[in-house]
Amino acid sequence: MAEASEKRTRRIAMAVDQSEWSEQAFEWFMENIYCEGDQVILLHVVEQPHLPFLADAMVIEEWKHEVQKIEEKLKVLEKKYIDRCKELKIAMRFKVEQGKPGEKICEMALKEKATLIVLGSRGSGLIRRTVLGSVSNYVIHHTKIPIILCPKDHL
User: Fold this and answer.
1) Which DSSP helix (H) or strand (E) runs through 99?
2) Closest by Cα among 46, 33, 7, 37 to 149
3) Does residue 26 contact residue 13 with C-beta atoms inside 8 Å?
4) Using alpha carbons only, what angle is made at residue 89 by residues 86 and 92, rounded to the nearest 5 degrees?
5) pTM > 0.90: yes or no
6) Alpha carbon distance 120, 155 (integer Å)
7) Distance separating alpha carbons of residues 3 and 153, to the nearest angstrom
8) With contact defined as beta carbons under 8 Å apart, do 106 and 143 qualify?
9) Distances from the Cα of 3 to the Cαs of 7, 102, 121, in angstroms?
């Protein structure tokens, strides 16, 4: 058993994207849950556009342009969170991977040995959630790591 004077470090895996819900979940967590000494790992998953199998030169150029836009948005997102963490005087790491968001968030949190996952929820309606799926729903049902889900109406 750990001694009372021994402080346990929490490893917080927080999924972030360009949405306002993600930013609101980050701010809510920082105001209500964050404790000095927590290790914050911001996770971002990029879904790369797929290049068609039989693409011509014009399609390839469009694909390259889309990839470039994604990379530019990623730089802006990373800078926003790095700057905000500096303002709050908290240490953090920003991790990026490609793939399906729900799957990658679960994988990254496990790899980082997270003790908690924090997600913002868009609060999609039933039809949209059924057709497109829900990242938060996927994570809730595919990880054994405790989760804080910040619904948009609560923030």
Assistant:
1) none
2) 33
3) no
4) 70
5) no
6) 9
7) 40
8) yes
9) 8, 37, 37
Location of structure tokens 């490609």: 98
Q: Could you write out the three-class secondary structure of 28-71?
A: HHHHHCCCCCCEEEEEEEECCCCCCCCCCHHHHHHHHHHHHHHH
Residue 16 tokens, joined: 């972030």
For range 57-75, the mean pLDDT: 83
Distance CA 27, CA 23 (A): 6
- Give dist(CA 96, CA 105) in Å, integer: 10
| Number of neighbours of residue 10 by Cβ within 10 angstroms | 15
Token pair 């802006």: residue: 76
Is 41 within 8 Å of 93 (Cβ atoms)? yes
The H or E element spanning position 75 is: helix 57-88
* Residue corresponding to tokens 């556009």: 49
Residues facing 108 on adjacent strands? none
Query: pLDDT tens digits for 124-154?
Result: 554 444 434 588 889 999 999 999 998 876 5
